[in-house]
Amino acid sequence: MDKTALRKKYKALRNSLSENEIEEKSLAIANKILTLPLWEQTYFHIFLPITEQKEVNTEFILHILSGKDKEIIVSKADFATRKMTHFLLTDNTKIKKNEYNIPEPIDGIEVPSTKIDVAFVPLLAFDKKGHRVGYGKGFYDAFLSECKPDAIKIGLSFFEPEELITDVFEGDIRLDYCVTPNSIHSF
């Protein structure tokens, strides 16, 4: 299936989930992440979910990272340049939703992409080869291309993979893992 059809299909599937299902599935994903071989890493980039889009609730993962004393990085998107700026999440970080309902840090201690060891990546769909479909703005592909080559890229999905995304581009960055409530897919 192509990206346009997949976006439509998975937005509808996500919209059919209840708040309770989102919480249960998000917790299951967080518990699966505990089994991944990444806990010796230091800098973890995580997205803050757009609740209106029924994204995976990353609060459970944030608690795990905090409990393991990891450096947590969150981003702010610039829609004019299609670039993200990354900030250290601290007790003093103020989060505010932008006009697209994306929770973002207002400001803080900036962290370069090259420092990030692990990136949790939002997505609508993914395939068995580790390709993902996002909202189509290219923010994450640009960001992930700036990370160090051995940065671990982990997609989070409520749903299992599609067989194949048919219109993958050269600039699309593949995932290393994708975690669903039932499985860990390794690529």
From TrEMBL:
Similarity comment: Belongs to the 5-formyltetrahydrofolate cyclo-ligase family.
Pfam families on file: 5-FTHF_cyc-lig
Annotated organism of origin: Flavobacterium xueshanense
Protein name stated in the entry: 5-formyltetrahydrofolate cyclo-ligase
Keyword Nuclease: no
Keyword Nucleotide-binding appears in the UniProt entry: yes
Keyword annotations from UniProtKB, A to Z: ATP-binding, Ligase, Magnesium, Metal-binding, Nucleotide-binding
Organism placement in taxonomy: Bacteria, Pseudomonadati, Bacteroidota, Flavobacteriia, Flavobacteriales
Top-rank EC class of the record's enzyme: ligase
Catalysed transformations (reactions): (6S)-5-formyl-5,6,7,8-tetrahydrofolate + ATP = (6R)-5,10-methenyltetrahydrofolate + ADP + phosphate
